[in-house]
Batch of 4 targets.
Target 1
Amino acid sequence: MQAAAFAGPRRALLRNQDGNHEALKLFTQVPARPPWYKEGWCLFRSEDAAEGARVAAFDFDKTLHHGGMAWRLSSAHIPGRLRQLHEEGYRIVIFSNQHGPGRQRTREAMQAEVRDITARFDDFASFCRVPLQIFVAAARGDVGDAFRKPNIGMWELLCSSRCSRGTLPDPALSFYVGNSAGRKTDGNDVDRQFAQRLGLKFYTEAFLTSRGA
Ligand SMILES: [Mg+2]
C-alpha cells in the first residue's frame, strides 16, 4: 500500500520533469530577438549593463498591472512612481515568473509564446518610458528551476557582467515589491520568500498606491 501511495506522485513528478525537459529543448531552439536574450530558462532584457547599488525591484502580474483589456488603466499611476524612483537613483527591475513556455509542445507554439511574452513586457516598458531591466523565469513551477522565484537565479543574473557594471546591486540598499505574500487570498508566498532569501526589504503591491509606504 505504502509503495503505491508514493509511486503515484513520483510518476507524476518524473512525467513533469520529462515534459519540462522537452519544453526547455524547444525554448533553447527558439530565438529571442534583441533587446531580449536568454539564459537557461530565463528571458531577460537589459539594454545596457546598468550601474548602481540601489535596486527597486517589482513582480509583474497583479503588482504592476491587473491584466485584461484595461491594464493601462489599472497601471495609470505606475509610470510616475517608477520615474520618481529612477530619479532618486534606483535601478528599476522586474522579476516575473511566467507559466506559458513550460506548457508548449511544438516549436511554433513556443515561438509564439516567447513572442507574446516579450511583446507584453515591451509594451509595458514603452508605457512607462523609464529604463527597465526585465527578467522572466519561464520554467514550469513544479521543477524547482534556479531562475524561478522563490529561487534567486534572476537576481544573480542581474548581478552578472551581462546586466551590471561598476557598482553591483546591494540587497541592503534595495527592496522588492510583490503580491504573492502568503496572505489568505494569495495563491502562494513566492514573492515574500524571494525577498527573504536575498535579504531584500519586502513590500506588497500596496507600496505602489500608498506613497512612501
Ligand atoms: Mg504577481
Note: The CA atoms of residues 88 and 172 lie 16 Å apart.
Target 2
Amino acid sequence: MSEKSQRLADLLAKIPVPAQALPSGEGRSLIEVAFLCVLGRRLSESAAEKTLAAFAGVYSDWNELRVSQVQEFQHLVQTKNPELAVFVARDTREFLQEIYQKIHGFNLDVLRGNIAEAARFAAQLPFLGTSIGHYLLHLACPDELPISPPVVRTLDRLGLAKRTTSIKKAQAGVEGFVPAAMRADFAIRMGLVVEKWCDGKRPLCWECPLVLSCPFGKKTEREWKQSQKRREVQRVREEERQRKDAEKERKRAASDEKRRLIAKAKDDARRVRDAERAKTKLSAKGAAKKRPSESGTRKKAAPKKVVHNKATQDAARAKKK
Ligand code: SF4
C-alpha cells in the first residue's frame, strides 16, 4: 500500500460509518436502493422492504405516489405506529420530489455507466444526502472511482488531490491511491464528510473528524477559534454594558421614586395644613355668627323698655292732667 493509500485509509477510518446499513444493490434498481435507504431511516430493514413492496403493489408509477396526499398512502407503511407512518409517508413524498426535480423522472438506472451525470446527480441531494448519493454513484459506475466535484474539493482541502472541474482528470489524480476494494467505503464516507462538514462555502472544520489531518481545516479552525474569542470578548463587553445600563436605569428609577415620595410627603403636609387652616377659619366664622344672635336678645328686650317707658310716660301725663 502506498503512503497516500495508507493516509487515505487512516482518514476514512476516522469518519464514522452512517448509522443505517445501506441496502445492497444486488438485483435492485437504483431507485429501489435509494427508496430503501430513505425508508430505512425510520423503519427496520424488513419493514422498509415490505413498505416498498406495498407501495409498488398499489402505485404502478412512482409519480402517482409523488403527487398523492400523505393520508392516501400512509396505511401502506408497515408499522403499527400511526405517527411513524405519517413521518415515513412524508419522507416518501419528499424523496420522490427531490428525485423528480433532479432527473425529471424516476429511472435512476439511466445514470449507470455515465460517471459525469452520476457525479452531477450525487453532488447535491439535500434530502437523500450526499453519502447515499455517492453510494448510488458507486453502484451506477462500479468500475470507476466514485468521485464528484464536492469530493474533489474535499480531497484538495485535505491535500490529497488537485482541484479540477474535470471528473476524468480528478479520477486520474486520485484513483492510484484508492484500491478497488476501498471504493464503496470511499464513496460513502467521503460523501458523508461533504454532507456533514465540508461545505463549499461554510465548512464546519472545527466539528470535522478529519481536522487534525487537514491543512485547510486546521487554518479554518484556527480562524474560527480566533473569531470565537473575539465574539466572546464582544459578548462580555456587551453584557457589561447592559449591566451598567441596567444599574444606571435602576438608580435613576430609585431617585425618581425618592423624589416622588418627597413631593408626595410635601403635598400631603400642605393638604393637612390647608385642611387645618380651613377648619380654623370655619370655627372663627362660627364664633362670629354666634355673637350677633346674643345682641339680638338684648334688642328684643328693648321694646319692653320702650313699652315700659311709654307706659311710664303715659302714666306721668295722666297724672299731670
Ligand atoms: S477539516 Fe474542514 S476542509 Fe478538512 S475535510 Fe474536514 S470540513 Fe473539509
Note: Residues 154, 157-158, 193, 197-198, 203, 205, 208, 210-211, 214, 216-217, 220 surround iron/sulfur cluster (CB under 6 Å).
Target 3
Amino acid sequence: MNKILIISLSALLSAPAFAGMQPFFAKNIPEEWPSYEIKDYNGQVEDGYDGPLSNILVIYDPSIKPEQLNRYLVQQTAIANKAHDINNIKYRRNVVAAIPMKLEGDNVAEVADSFEFGAFDEIRRKYGASVVSLVINSNLADGQCGVQTSYHTVTAFNEPCSLPTLLAHEWGHVDRLGHEYEHTWSHFEDDNYAWRCGGKPTIMSADLNYDQFDLNEFYSDPNVTRGGEACGTVTANNAKVLLETISDIEYARWAQVPPLEKIGNVTIALDENQSSEFEKVITVTRDGDVSQAASIEVYSDAVTAVPATDYQELAKRVEFAPNETTKTVTLQLVNPAPADAICDDGERALKLGTRWGEKLGSSNQLDLTVKTPEDTLASCAKDKESEPTPEKPDNGNGGGGGGGGGGSTGLLSLFSLALFLFRRRN
Ligand SMILES: [Zn+2]
C-alpha cells in the first residue's frame, strides 16, 4: 500500500493569485465555467484513437453538485491528456462513469484508511475501468488534498484543493510516477529528482507553494523545453517512467480491466404530454443489442438557467435490464418559494444529454427552456407593490395594520431557519 501525501494545507493557504490556469473548485460555477456538450463528456478521447486507454470510474460524495463535479472531471482529464501530448506519449485518460456513493471518513486520510486493497474491484469491472477515483468532501483536518493507493485515488473537491492538475497528479502516481521536487531534499522515499523549468513546477511536483496555479502542464522530460531550459534530466524523467509503465503489460493498470464494448446508442426525448411546468418527463430509449443489461447517465447542464434555482441538477444513471428498451427520468423544476422567486417570466435555457454509458453511446442532446411558473410570479417580491411597514400601535391593543407584517416576518424567519439548517449540514 502506497499512500502519498502531496500537498500541505499551509502551502495551499498561502497560494498566490491564479495565473495562467483557471482554478477549478466547487464555488465558481456556473458563471465562470464553460458549458459542455455531450461530445465533451463522451469524447475525452478523440475519434480514431487506438492507443492505451486509462479508463477511470469516479465515485463521488452525494453532496457534491453533479454539474460542478462533471465540469471539473472534464477539465482534469483534458489537462492529463494534454500532458501526454506535450510529453509525446500516446496515452489517454477517460472517465467512464461517475457514481454518487457515501464513503466512510471526513477527509482524504480517513477515506483512504477506510478501504482495503482490492476494494471497488467489482464496480470498476462493471464499468470497464482500471482506475477508481474517489472524489470527496474534506474537513482538511489531515491537511491533504489527495492520495493514491494501488488503482485508487482519493481527492478532495473544495476551494483549497482546487489545483487544476490534482487528478492528473494522482493518476500519475497510479502509473508509478514519483514526485518531482524543486529542492534536492525530500521526505518521500519514492521521489524522483528535483525538477522545474522556466520557473514553474511540473504536474508531479509535491512542493506546490510556489505559483501552484501556474504549473507546467506536463511531466518532467529532458526533451521538453521551456524558455530554452530542458524540463528534465536523465534521472528527472517522469515521461520515460510513464512510457515504461504503460508498455509493461504485466503491471500496467490500464490493461487490467478491458474496456466495455458498445452495444447500442441512447436517444432522449421530451414527453410533452407527461410534462408540466414543475416537471419535465424525459424518455430514454436504447437501440442496438438490447439483450444485455446496460446503463447510461442522463445529465443536466446549465446554459442560462440556474441550477437549484430554476431546476434541480440531474445526474441520473438509467439502468436497463435485458430486453428493456425505454425508461423515463424526470427533471424537477423548482417551484420557487416567495422569498427567492425569480421575478422574471422569461425563458431560461439548459441542456440535457446522456453520457458515460455502460456499453451504451449517446445519440442526441435536448435543449430545454424553463420559466417561473405563472402562479408563483404573483408572490415574487419585485412584482409586489412595496408595502409600507405597518406602524405598531402605541397602546399594544392591536391595530388593524399588523397582520400582514407579522405574516411576512414569519415567512422570513422560516427562510432564515432553512438557510441555517442548510449551512449546518455542510
Ligand atoms: Zn503526489
Note: Residues 1-23, 383-426 have pLDDT under 50 and may be disordered.
Target 4
Amino acid sequence: MLKRLLSKLKRKKKEYPNRFLKHYHENKKKLLKERKSLYNQKKEAGICVRCNKKALKDIIFCSYHKNMQKGYNKKARTDIQK
Ligand SMILES: [Zn+2]
C-alpha cells in the first residue's frame, strides 16, 4: 500500500510554486474526503453545514443560511437570463 503510493508520487513528480500548493495537490483526495465527511457528519447531526448552528428540519442550513442560499440561487438565475 505504502510502496504503491510512493511509486505513484515518484511517477507524478511535479514542481509546485510553494510548499503549501505542493501539500494541497499531494493531499487533495484526502483533504476533499475529509471535507466531505465533515459535511455528512453535520448533516446527520442536524447542524448547519455553513456554520455550527442547529439546522432546520429536513434541510442542511440554519434559517440564516437558508435565506443566504435563496439569495445565491436567485442571483444565479438572474445571471443566466442576462
Ligand atoms: Zn448557518
Note: The two ends are 52 Å apart (CA to CA).
